[in-house]
Amino acid sequence: MPVGNSPVIDFQTPFLSDLSRLRGPSPAVGTTHLAEVSTRPGTHKITTQVGQPVYSVTFASEGNNTELSLFQALVDAKILTSKVAMVIDNGWRNSFFVKLDKMHDLESWDVDDKPLAKDSVYTFLRAYLTWKPRRNPALGLSVRGNLLAAWRDERARFTVEMLPADKVSYVLVAPNSDLEGNGESFDDKSSGTTKISSMQRILNPYPLASWFEFSEK
Amino acid sequence: MRRVAYNRQERDPDTDAFVGIFPDAFALRSVDKGSLSVTWLEYFGGNYSSNVSASIAVIGRCMKGSQKNAVFAIGNIGEIRKAGRARGYSVRVIYDPSACNFAHSAIRQIAPEDLEMLDELASDIFRDIRSVAGKKL
């Protein structure tokens, strides 16, 4: 199922968990004004239409504040994820949100880094639903503000950067099984940029393809 | 030694335990101006363990923000050059002290667009990983 076609949004979990991190009155869920937040350097309003199919939250503020840009990136990512809530496991979604929170922790944030880009989250969700990984990936954030996902076992690894517009750049390392009988060891390495839909064809020659179920096209 | 922020670390998705380093830990940002920042351990002149501790301390002092959840990866310059040569790059490692970090060095011509090179740095060359307390991970 393509991501983003559902009108159902579960706003409450992502919003309440995020708003609790900021100063200001408790949000009144169900109203259009969720919170007025007093942060450096001024006052910022967060408005949305809870329960309505509105997918963006905007800070009515001037200036560029790291705390707010991290918050905005988190909210964007969580809203986008919530749009596909019906096709993803609740437990997975919650752990994804916890990981996003850790990745955007202000205390350990490097001011020269870029917060997570919404387009990258979109690609990640599309990839996740298309590739159907049998176990969850390790997640990270690239220098370009894109989501990184990695799977590995003792001998093989597969790392992907989720680029905008359904593209991914990948690098994989897998033992070359042809040489194993000779007592030699050699790793196949491959890297490149491709579309989500082409990844199965690229992975198929490698044993690590079994890490994914891949949805039918 | 290179500091690796939490976001460039592979962490177990269930336990958040450290698993490895993303290749992107060696990618260049625009602020890096074409060179990868590292700290030269031997500058401190002690044994390996004390050099590690001194390097972590000076990085912590010079970096903006908290070192919370950061790890420190140690690689051998000879291996970096060798990996570069094998891929056709003339990697240069230059002692480049800063006002804050007198052991600061720069790795140049590392071909940041070469994902396999970055993967090799992350998984095969910068193998000695230390916590902020200097403990081996």
Structural class of chain A: alpha+beta
How does the overall form of chain B come out from the CA principal axes? Answer: globular
Biggest sheet of chain A, in brief?
5 strands, antiparallel
Helix content of chain B: 25-40%
Indicate the structural class of chain B: alpha+beta
* Cα end-to-end separation of chain B: 14 Å
The interface involving the most residues is between: A-B, 34 and 34 residues
Number of helices of chain A: 5
How are the strands ordered across the major sheet of chain B? 1-5-8
Question: Overall pLDDT of chain A, averaged?
Answer: 76
| Sequence stretches where pLDDT stays below 50 over 5 or more residues of chain A | 1-63
Report what the structure shows:
- The complex is a heterodimer of chains A (217) and B (137).
- Chain A is 27% helix and 22% strand.
- With 217 residues, chain A is an alpha+beta fold.
- The N terminus of chain A is likely disordered.
- Chain B has 3 helices and 8 strands.
- Chain B has a 3-stranded antiparallel sheet with strand order 1-5-8, with helices on one face.
- In chain B, α2 runs antiparallel to α3.
- The two termini of chain B are 14 Å apart.
- Classes of the chains: A alpha+beta (217), B alpha+beta (137).
- At the A-B interface, α3, β4, β5, β6 and β7 of A face β2 and α3 of B.
Offer a few descriptive terms.
heterodimer, A: alpha+beta, 8 strands, 27% helix, B: 137 residues, alpha+beta, three-stranded antiparallel sheet, globular
